[in-house]
Amino acid sequence: MLDRAISHDKITRFLSSDLLDSRDLWRLVKPLVRKYQQEEAVIVIDDTIEEKPYTDESSLICWHFDHSKGRSVKGINIVNVLYETQGIRIPVSYTVVEKTKWVWDKEKKKEVRKSETSKNGHVRRMLKTCVQNDISFKHVIADTWYGASETMKFICKELKRSFVMPLKSDRNIALTEEDKQEGKYQEVKLVELEQNKTYKVYVKQLEFPLLLIKQVFKEGDESETEGVLYLVTDDLTLEYAEITALYQRRWCVEEFHASIKGNTALELSPTQTIRTQKNHIFGSIYGYVKLEKIKIGTGLNHFALRSKMYVKALQAAHRELKCLENSSKLKDIQIL
After folding, report:
1. Burial class (CB in 10 A: 0-12, 13-18, 19+), 287
2. Which of 78, 113, 285, 304 could bridge 300 with an S-S bond, Cβ 3.0-4.6 Å?
3. Mean pLDDT of 139-166
């Protein structure tokens, strides 16, 4: 396609060269962040698994629990920090989870791999780096996996930012400060809560109050089954609609994961070593950034861009086919 402007060996050398990581990504995306950042922006946290069922197991490629499937899958677990502002989504940090130590699992009755640092620990470190990099944002949005008390304290007390996160239904809360002082906690799912209403509550292991809302939704467009989200925030100025609108912005990280898997070949790496696998992940994430820049200029999302390029490629192939057919007909005439 490029008339040998870039050789296969050059790609191989790139993947095998110096290890590229989140710091290198920040240097590349920093100008874009500075151009569009604003105080009302949000940081969205989530992780994804790059499935590698047929690649040899290592500290990088190993078994991780996939919440979307409800089971463990073999692959690479990547924790991502996405900056969302004005409809623009920019990955500003990421961590590839490595399980470098072995521990005994009583339930499985065998040794299993474990990471030295928890995913919440990785998130706290990356959020601190975001603040040190002077990235403007007001709220941190994440799912229940990152709703650990220590992470909530860190965002509120150390970073001086706010969060919107769902609580697990068995988290213990006190409805008043008096109940908190007396240790009268109950599981949130047992508390009668009205929709469209905010409640000031105290979550066990947190010394500061939170706003709690109950959001009921249908699981699927045609489903009759109702799901429930218990959303909490330490920003006591927010109304019910503002809390739900902020949490809705979390969906952009799902679109980010879909794009790096579907458009920038995250899961299609033939690499065999940890260094080349990590550098391929870096390249896939930065490929997303390049697509995002095109999206800003054209107004087309990543999948619409891919579809447009695919159609153009088919049209070019069809034109080439017609040229070949015409040449063949002309040759037949000359022979006759």
Report:
1. middle
2. 304
3. 96
What does each C-alpha distance from 123 to 45, 82, 113, 138, 158 come to in angstroms? 8, 12, 20, 16, 14
Q: CA-CA distance, 225 to 217, in Å (whole number)?
A: 9
H/E stretch holding 69: none
Q: How far, rounded to the nearest angstrom, does the alpha carbon of residue 33 sit from its chain's CA centroid?
A: 17
Whole-number Å distance between alpha carbons of 43 and 92? 9
More confident residue, 320 or 3: 320
Report the pLDDT averaged over residues 175-193.
Answer: 94
Q: What is the DSSP string of 239-250?
A: -HHHHHHHHHTT
Domain holding 334, by residue range, is 304-336
Identify whether 290 is part of a domain. yes
Task: Report pLDDT digits (tens) over 79-132.
Answer: 999 999 999 999 999 999 999 999 999 988 899 999 999 999 999 999 999 999
Cα separation, 232 vs 213, in Å, equals 7
The pTM of the full predicted model, rounded to 2 decimals, is 0.90
Question: Quick one: 134 and 167 in the same domain?
Answer: no
